[in-house]
Amino acid sequence: MVNNMEKNKTAMQEMLEWTRRTFPMDLDTPRMIEDKIELLLHKERKQIIDAWTDGCTGELWELNIDTSAEKYYKETYGSQAPQRLNKANGKSN
Where are the domains of the chain? Predict the structure, then answer.
């Protein structure tokens, strides 16, 4: 059975996995693509957290929204997503 940390991936996490599986990473162009995807993962993370925060209403505003949004992201997509992808693709952290 697949646990939540393995099956929930953002679009950019899937793109990074596919890139690493598909292209030889010893060439410049695939490496540049991989680097760009890794930068976009950070942007995507912020967008997900911002969407969570923007969607919070009522009693959730009484909580620390930033912590709740960060917790949501970590529980859904994992705090170590890039490291998990490296491990899955046979790379060391």
Answer: 48-93
